[in-house]
Amino acid sequence: MAVPETNFSPPFNITRASHVIVTVRDLAESRRFYTDVIGLLVTHETDREVYLRGVEETCHHSLTLRQTDGAPVCEAVGFRVFRDEDLDLAKKHFDATGVAANWVEREFQGRTLRVSDRAGIPLEFCASMPTLPRLHDQPQFHRGAGALRYDHVQCLVPDVADAGRFYTDLGFRISDYFVDQPDDDDPLGLFMYRKNNPHDMVLLTRPGPQLHHFGYIVAESHCLFRALDTAGGIGFAQCFERGPGRHGQGHVFYVYFRDPDGHRVEILPPPIQLMDFDDKPARWHSGNRFTWDLPPPEKWLHEATPFEGVPLRKPAAEQKLFSLEEFLSAAR
Amino acid sequence: MAVPETNFSPPFNITRASHVIVTVRDLAESRRFYTDVIGLLVTHETDREVYLRGVEETCHHSLTLRQTDGAPVCEAVGFRVFRDEDLDLAKKHFDATGVAANWVEREFQGRTLRVSDRAGIPLEFCASMPTLPRLHDQPQFHRGAGALRYDHVQCLVPDVADAGRFYTDLGFRISDYFVDQPDDDDPLGLFMYRKNNPHDMVLLTRPGPQLHHFGYIVAESHCLFRALDTAGGIGFAQCFERGPGRHGQGHVFYVYFRDPDGHRVEILPPPIQLMDFDDKPARWHSGNRFTWDLPPPEKWLHEATPFEGVPLRKPAAEQKLFSLEEFLSAAR
Amino acid sequence: MAVPETNFSPPFNITRASHVIVTVRDLAESRRFYTDVIGLLVTHETDREVYLRGVEETCHHSLTLRQTDGAPVCEAVGFRVFRDEDLDLAKKHFDATGVAANWVEREFQGRTLRVSDRAGIPLEFCASMPTLPRLHDQPQFHRGAGALRYDHVQCLVPDVADAGRFYTDLGFRISDYFVDQPDDDDPLGLFMYRKNNPHDMVLLTRPGPQLHHFGYIVAESHCLFRALDTAGGIGFAQCFERGPGRHGQGHVFYVYFRDPDGHRVEILPPPIQLMDFDDKPARWHSGNRFTWDLPPPEKWLHEATPFEGVPLRKPAAEQKLFSLEEFLSAAR
Amino acid sequence: MAVPETNFSPPFNITRASHVIVTVRDLAESRRFYTDVIGLLVTHETDREVYLRGVEETCHHSLTLRQTDGAPVCEAVGFRVFRDEDLDLAKKHFDATGVAANWVEREFQGRTLRVSDRAGIPLEFCASMPTLPRLHDQPQFHRGAGALRYDHVQCLVPDVADAGRFYTDLGFRISDYFVDQPDDDDPLGLFMYRKNNPHDMVLLTRPGPQLHHFGYIVAESHCLFRALDTAGGIGFAQCFERGPGRHGQGHVFYVYFRDPDGHRVEILPPPIQLMDFDDKPARWHSGNRFTWDLPPPEKWLHEATPFEGVPLRKPAAEQKLFSLEEFLSAAR
Question: In chain A, which residues have their Cβ closer than 8 Å to the Cβ of D331?
């Protein structure tokens, strides 16, 4: 199945990946991880929920942690639409195309519309949140990585071409896609964006749907080290999973952490700007990827967060993934 | 005159500030300044012209230097529209609103439409340029600041509210504006944007129209020092004008240079992201600006590049500008 | 008077500049400045004294703040000798050379010997302090600049050649010296060191003796910006005096602050290493200094901290100092 | 066998690790690696030799590459003594203690004395080299990591306590040592220094003697990324071996490369300062090491450069080394 085509006249205006909601088993410990290692600020909290935002963000929250007594899951992946009327256009569009779309109540959000994408990922759209002052230039409030802003979400799905079409129909453009062999058609990875950088929603072929990670932008590359040192210093060293590395497509550097419940979070400096009509999807395969970065460990390849109540499906064909373990073994 | 209002249904889709054309008296020396201190890459050159781009840019050029035997000027300020058909919409719009709009030939650009804004600034719009590979992750090609990409242009005009209306009518949003006293209406500075950061076009009240500076994004704050050290090392120390500092509104850090002809160029790390409908224009006055940055020297306040063949007009009222010279004198 | 010669067989082993004691009028406010902007850690405090150290330092303190009800002064400039027996050698040496040397009691220091140098600067030598763990890799304890370690002290004296001889006799080497005109003999500035970088004690010709500043090393250049932003964010913007700049001899970058009592403190990334016998003193004059850095403002040139109870003497000849004010005035 | 004790009255004054000589099979390719990835400057070259130095170094060379047609080896590890007369003291000392010490001719070095240490490592001592200007503040000459200066050498030896005694007798101090279990006596790693940071000579227990790596200081942490990106960009991606990481004792960050012949070179930002008599050797074991850094891959643990003509001996007891491979396997 081929790489889907962007609809440049989308039915409503999605502007960016905006937030994610995950459940955690120890709210205090998760709060400590996200505030002290990642550097998020608490906007609001109760004994069951913590709302957090990056230090540059004016929106009320980009991460919501919810206490659970069960297994930790992702409850929803959020996108921002430009204006309130875009929500009505969205509702109309989903109704017309047979996608169940329901208004849901969310604290600290304007009207919120909930749907599932073709792969079963629970999405929610909203146009506004209460706003707060930016604090990116006030380092007295920064901890750890001092994460600036929520950037993107990466999900695992059994068929990225099929799942991706949901997004390209809504106007998402493709910055990059991966195929296995140089002359393959079938994409195994899709980097899709609405705002002016390479990713709002990334899809990889794996059993899914699952949340692979969400990413926060940090100011500069040294913030990666600051996050790591802080994690080491306050008892979260075991949360470090991968990096510092340079993404294969060259967008930017990265570090991956697993939070205390295993939810994966990436921190990355500001990536490239991508916005011209001339910017065509870049095609990557085993033969042309950027080369100094080491392959990911098995866990990064295969572990992820389930979506609440959504069953897993396997990809049609098994995919061979090159891991750090294999790289090291081959290097001997 | 009040701060103009953004038209959120603009007649055509301008996506970003894209390029600038200036004339220089010694092409080789200017080329050396922009490649070795600012770090631009030469895409094409003849003995009369040099086309340059930032290391991250895929577009053919964002700066064109042209040899002149006269006084150095700015020939045009360029904006990118999203698709070729936006140019037809633009032509139609300008014709309908009585703005002279002419198709001009530009090498290495698609169709190009030229107009003058309400202040007389010569603008040109195009939808495409030949593309080249990004080289931001290939430091073997980086020199000096290693400038990533063209970001914005700042112009001086006698009446920013009036001049700004041209842009807000075309969909530019306002990130920030300056007034003199806390309760003033009349804006003395307007920061306007189409892409997702605070500035594509900035206007300040002064005799005009003049080009005050254009700005390139650099990767990280240490690149400011690298540019300065390189300037010192290769004979361009006297081109350093101001900084390193933090902009008064807190967007980001900066350094200003004057090129060998006195054209001013700013380098700045990636500034804040700005894109939500909730992001309202921030209002600044003498009482609420960010405070550690020192005021600009007189030259920064008053010297600028003329636009070719465009006469200067003075602001209606004289404005008192606080300079570094006054600050130092008051501090004694 | 010529540049003094280093005695390479000094009577005792001074290893480095180690600490400074200043008095302040508002202990709480000064504590806040040094912990939150400079990033020092409090090792011990009472209601009359605060002992501070850099985050990398194992020594108990490198800065002591003492509450005063009078005018703020510097009480002593401290140097570390290698071993306790070096203090006995020092005492013997000073007794033999007619320099009054007295044992003084200092809390949190081993035996401490106090003398005045030839210019009247009150010095104290000690060999040990209680030690504490290094915390440079524990960013959870870092604030502001996250200053790593005390590095050097700069003093103003009426005759640097004469004053400097005290230090070169004790084994200080000269990294750099300034003269006015290229063929002058008389040094107007002396950079002297014992440890392996360009400065433990710097002397400049001015009315003196006075403490011009003391300097702390920060990890990287971006820490300069973090200190400035923090100062701006917590109400110490007016404490920023000069920079970020590159020192004229090229050692490294700098920012200067004035603490709430006007004591000047420099922060600087790690400078060059200097330790070979082959490293001869570098000679600087108005014609060969590094060029992009702007000259210092008048206040930096002329304001300083008096030493407690030590009268000022003027230099024999008046010196013309080039200030930022003059530079800006000449540039018009 | 216990950790050896420092002789604080050494027979002559070694000041620092100064240089290393290795042989290479393709001089042009090795030259390209060290100049373009590591950033060294060529001081002198013939068709059989290249002399290189760091951009901050005034000494003529810190790395000598020699063309070989055989297997690549390390010919000598160099240390600097303070003054020429220290060489005579050294000769006298080695003669008196039955260590064969011979004067050898080295181009671009003053008198040079050659000995083998107790483990068979070929050492050479010299007091001077021709000097050249520092270029650390001239980025127009920097490439890749822009390495500032040679810092240390790490060697593998079968018995570090025995081998280390050679150095502690010559005045080397111990910053850190490793044991296996918390209550072990026998050191498995010794970090020894003469200059004011944690390492001039590091010894690890392994079959030896072998050269494990030599290290160059880079200016800031982002230089690690610049080196890696450059390596990727110019065809040396496969030379990347390990990092970026934070050393277990917390001294500083690191990246390891293998040059085209497999010689290992480390780049690291400026580490901690270490110089007080109060600074006691830090004791590390499996239970108290800094924790976020991942273990080294098998190759880092076991591969090294032989010394020319020196046979390998095995440690008395086999040592269990924890590798990245085991870590990943255990993590599954």
Answer: 297, 299
Beta-carbon separation of B273 and A15 below 8 A: no
Stated length of chain A: 332
Predicted confidence at residue D291, as pLDDT, reads 75
CB contacts of B36 in chain D (<8 Å) are 140
CB B249 within 8 A of CB B176: yes
Question: Cα angle vertex B51, ends B45, B53, to 5°?
Answer: 135
Cβ pair A241, A264 in contact under 8 A: yes
Report the complex ipTM: 0.96
Whole-model pTM?
Answer: 0.97
Q: Do A237 and D325 touch (CB under 8 A)?
A: no
Distance from CA of B130 to the nearest CA of A (A): 8
User: What is the pLDDT confidence band of residue A285, given thresholds at 50, 70 and 90?
Assistant: confident
Q: Which of D36, D137, D140 to mutate to test the interface with B (most CBs of B within 10 A)?
A: D140
Phi, psi (degrees; rounded to nearest 5) at D84: -55, -40
Tell me how far apart the alpha carbons of residues C119 and C167 are, in angstroms, rounded to a whole number.
11
Distance CA A112, CA C210 (A): 66
CB contact under 8 A, B276 and A195: no
- Give the pLDDT score at C251: 87
Taking all residues of chain D, what is their mean pLDDT, rounded to a whole number? 95
Helices B324-331, C324-331: axis angle to 10 degrees equals: 140
Mutate to test the interface with C, among A140, A218, A230, A267 (most CBs of C within 10 A): A140
Backbone angles phi, psi at D257, to 5 degrees: -115, 155
Q: Which residues in D100-115 are b (16+ Cβ under 10 Å) and which e?
A: ebeeeebeebebbbbb
Compute CA A24 distance to the chain's CA centroid, rounded to the nearest angstrom: 18
Which residue reads 């990130």 in tokens? Answer: B175
Query: CA C27 to CA C32: how far, in whole Å?
Result: 9
Partnered with residue C176 across adjacent β-strands are: C191, C282
- Contact list in C for residue B297 (CB cut-off 8 A) is 328, 331
Nearest Cα residue in chain C from A220: C222
Give B-chain residues touching D137 at CB under 8 angstroms.
229, 232-233
Candidate from C140, C222, C233 with C-beta closest to A230: C140
Question: B250: closest CA among A58, C264, A270?
Answer: A58
Q: Report which of B204, B149, B227 is spatially closest to residue B321, judged by C-alpha positions.
A: B204
Tell me how close the Cα of D37 comes to any Cα of chain B, in angstroms.
9
> Hey, what amino acid is at C50?
V
CB A243 within 8 A of CB D253: no
Q: Chain C partners of D7 at a C-beta cutoff of 8 Å?
A: none
Distance, CA of C143 to CA of C230 (rounded, Å)? 8
Other Cβ atoms within 10 Å of A82 Cβ, number = 18
> Could you tell me the two tokens for B28?
């080789």
Phi, psi of C27 (to 5 degrees): -60, -40
Tokens of B192: 């306007």
Residue D189 to residue D155: CA distance in whole angstroms? 10
Q: How confident is the model at residue D321 (pLDDT cuts 50, 70, 90)?
A: confident
- Return the ∠ at Cα A323 (arms to A322 and A325), rounded to 5°: 135
CA distance C259 to C241: 10
User: Residue A309 region, left (φ>0) first, then alpha (ψ -120 to 50), else beta?
Assistant: left
Is-contact C230 C36, C-beta < 8 A?
yes
Q: Alpha-carbon distance B140 to D227, whole Å? A: 10
CA atoms within 13 A on the CB side of D177: 23
Residues in chain C: 332
Which residues does chain C have with pLDDT short of 50? none
Neighbours of C37 (CB within 10 A): 30
Q: Is the pLDDT of residue D51 over 90?
A: yes
DSSP-derived pairing of the beta strands D14-24 and D74-81: antiparallel
